[in-house]
């Protein structure tokens, strides 16, 4: 395959990890929905699952409200954020009653000392599992032991582990082995040859493409995924097929 | 090769870093390079303050594939008495072609006098020096201005181009002020707009593609350049034109 200075994806792309809106300490380079769609067009991305930046460190409840202005009912699909409090659970349950919840993202309560344990998060995790709602978990905020032990107690809950970095290199295989209903989002998988190695070891059906735009540039991992030994059919799964299946509540490996 | 442009990766490591599952497996490195058209990767070893141990590892690594890798010499002021002798050996006997320095592994800011024998050596020979640069005080790229002013025949490369916003802005200012300062692109942060900022503010002729292989796969790092919103002519310079000129290869 000849390499060129221009790149566009060969397969449909559904980005599993896009952040919109301003952080409290950092304005986003992408100011509105039209700019986001333009950036997606530039990189050949058809659809994106989006969450609001305010849900990361300020308020998942308010951030979910701010997300509404970014949705377009077509290419930009909502990912609601959640923290294990009654108010947050009630907000997401109300959205679920409207048929609008197809995935949830875990807010980082660990930064104020609340661990990710069954005694602290059990009600939330039970509800998600019972309703076949997949949970996105950002690894930069997580503890490996909490993930392994807590998620093992909810074996039917589908999770997507987000943002594994080279500093998580020693976590990835034990977690993927211990948690058969966990998927790995690939925005920061940078160790040498790791995408091909992981797909070989676990199968392409365990991975989803995400850019983590606007934290990271949108096109880089797409370029990477298109220059590997991964087959075209597996590339289609990673870039869109697996995510469609997960969001339809069909992510369980059972 | 990309569209007849020779592609040179200016930032790579030899040795293992098992904490991050990083290993200098030449087959894996060459596979990644081949998949995206990288012709040559520059490599160095920063894990041994004597310089000698790591430079020998680098030379052996390069010798296995001399058409695909070039080696840079590493020394440290933590063992300052041997720096110039080791640089002389590494360049003249091992065939390494440039210098890598890593201020976070030392006790000194990169413009302090203890580093000057290295800069004098590079200045006499017209060599390039790539530094780790970032937000820590020893490695702040704003300090490169001092070096560039005092050693005008050496070329100073800000590795990672400072990595994050404030040091990156300082790196760009230094490159604007001194023609012998260059900015290298590898960074795990992959912040949107950085490649465009470097090219637009410092000039495409001052930016060097780097990947940090084998700590990181070279493919996403090259992807930053290819998918960046810059001209094809700028991509040619960044991907290899500038490095070929700087290294004389």
UniProtKB/TrEMBL annotation, chain A:
**InterPro entries xref list:** Metal_Hydrolase
Please give the SUPFAM superfamilies that the UniProt record associates with this protein. Metallo-dependent hydrolases
**What's the superkingdom here?**
Bacteria
What is the protein's name according to its record?
Answer: Amidohydrolase family protein
From TrEMBL, chain B:
Sorted UniProt keywords: Hydrolase, Lyase
Cite a single GO BP annotation.
Answer: secondary metabolic process
User: PANTHER family from the entry?
Assistant: 2-AMINO-3-CARBOXYLMUCONATE-6-SEMIALDEHYDE DECARBOXYLASE, ISO-OROTATE DECARBOXYLASE (EUROFUNG)
- Which residues does UniProt call coiled coil? none
Record's protein name: Amidohydrolase
Amidohydrolase-related domain: which residues?
20-249
- What is the originating organism of this protein? Caldilineaceae bacterium SB0661_bin_32
List, alphabetically, the SUPFAM superfamilies matched: Metallo-dependent hydrolases
